[in-house]
Amino acid sequence: MKKKGKGKALAIGAAVLLGIGAFAGGGEDTKPEPTPTPQPVRTVATAAPTRRPTATPRPDLIHGQPPESTVYVSSSNVIHFESDCSGMKHYREMSLKDADAAGYEYCSKCVW
Predict the structure, then answer these.
(1) Residue ranges of the domains in the chain?
(2) Would you call 14 helix, strand, or coil by DSSP?
(3) Are 108 and 78 in contact (CB under 8 A)?
(4) Residue 105 backbone class (left: φ over 0; alpha: ψ -120 to 50; beta: rest)
(5) Please, which residues bridge with residue 106 across strands?
């Protein structure tokens, strides 16, 4: 009688294992899911952004001014483009080229 009980237990165990294997995807009769075909994406053509024209740097200019331009050098040796900048009263006139060559600093207000 004991042999029949063992046979039933083995049969139940085998059935459980087969059921778990089928549930976990280990069954032989499962078919792979078909891969979906990618659909084409529609795009709308847009105009390319327009580029703003940029100024071509000119090597003959100093701070955007011709070297022969008259500048005003203050008593503290600061180059100004405007003779009345910051209420300046004492200055000497010279060419931008000469003032730049002398190594003077540029005014932070009137020199652009």
Answers:
(1) 70-106
(2) helix
(3) no
(4) beta
(5) 79
Whole-model pTM: value is: 0.47
> 22-75 pLDDT, tens per residue?
555 555 566 778 888 888 888 777 777 777 777 666 677 888 889 999 999 999
**How far apart are alpha carbons 46 and 66 in whole angstroms?**
43
Contacts of 85 (CB under 8 A, 6+ apart): 72, 107, 109, 110
Q: How far is CA 101 from CA 17, 45, 62, 97, 107, in A?
A: 94, 54, 11, 6, 16
Angle at 66 between CA 106 and CA 93, to 5 degrees: 55
Q: Please state, in angstroms and rounded to a whole number, the distance separating the CA atoms of residues 87 and 78.
A: 14
